[in-house]
Amino acid sequence: MAKFIVPKEIFHGLGSLENLKELKGKKAVIVIGGNSVRANGSLKRTEDFLKEAGISSVVFSGVEADPSIDTVKRGADFFTQEQPDVIVGLGGCSAIDAAKAMWVYYEYPESTLEELAAPFAVKKMRSKAYFVAIPSTSGTGTEITGLSVITDKEKGTKYPIVSHELTPDVSIVDGELCESMPAHVTANTGLDALSHGVEAYVSNIADRYNDSLAKGAIELVFENLPTAYTEPNNKEARQAMHDASCMAGMAFTNVWLGIVHSMSHQIGGTFGIPHGCGNAILMPNVARFNSKVTDKYEDLAALFGKSTAEDFAQEIEALRLKVGVVGSIKEYGISQEEWDAKLDTLTENAMKDPCTLFNPRKPKFEEIKAIYQACYEGTKIDF
């Protein structure tokens, strides 16, 4: 027996932002990152549509690329001051993830990050506000998931907060918001969406509901990411990537992720490697590792008329190259000395990450370490 959880309402398609006019409430806090949603008009349009709905709004801005617990607590204090009954996360993954965590602290001010990072530790939400997610990047699927990743910068560690209570109430998947996304962000987020589809498809609790969404998302990414990367104003490709991100999010929020994410969380928190890039570097070798216990990578290879897990790993590598993403961790300028000093800690933290629980193959410490080392060098593993 299983269950399938998604937002109560999902509005998707070009121009779907206008569905904000149908919301109910009195006051919204809109959480954003930097100036991109101001510059491209998304923030103004959001404010205007909320006004048409009879909802006043204020803005909390300045969420950084990897939202920190300090930013989250500042946002929660702002929420307490403003007392919204609607919370809107607008922008990239960071803004929406931060807004989710702020929401938790708004409803439960005494929370600690360490407590929230325990699997499914978030208590019942929505006593003060409901949540609306409006992504302007096509990758994380955070608009559809019960996941928020927050960084403790003092410890250099990313903490995933995992709970269906964090699943947004309303998601708006409008590809028009993505047209101003730079090429490197298109690449990083698109490869992140791919990793979500792949890891959901091979999850050790996967089922046919989530398999169909995950595989559909994988196909959309391979078909549309190169076009979105090279033709940023191609609205059809943008919407297809936005849909892929959402579909992969629907899959993985129900069957979760694996060690690609367990490992990527650590190199992102420690070295600042963009999450999608970290996932793209790790994915081929994790596929090789996991293929010893599942034939699902062979299913994915069949999408390309091929038959082996190695074939699929090579398709990922080819796509990564097409969109300008490097093939090794050391290409980010991380010295051998720095890498060696951190490797055991990275491995230990990856083993503890909640995503490891859902990997199809249960890894040992030395196996995670070996995958890390191969990905640092840009070489293949063979277990």
Automatic annotation (TrEMBL):
Ranges of residues in domain Alcohol dehydrogenase iron-type/glycerol dehydrogenase GldA: 7-174
CDD domains, per the entry: NADPH_BDH
Gene3D superfamilies named among the record's database cross-references: 3.40.50.1970, Dehydroquinate synthase-like - alpha domain
PROSITE patterns registered for this protein in UniProt: ADH_IRON_1, ADH_IRON_2
Domain of life: Bacteria
Alphabetized GO MF terms: alcohol dehydrogenase (NAD+) activity; metal ion binding
Keyword terms, alphabetized: Oxidoreductase
UniProt cross-references to Pfam families, sorted A to Z: ADH_Fe_C, Fe-ADH
Domain Fe-containing alcohol dehydrogenase-like C-terminal: 186-375
Homology family: Belongs to the iron-containing alcohol dehydrogenase family.
Protein name (record): Uncharacterized protein
Species whose genome carries this gene: Marinifilum flexuosum
Lineage: Bacteria, Pseudomonadati, Bacteroidota, Bacteroidia, Marinilabiliales
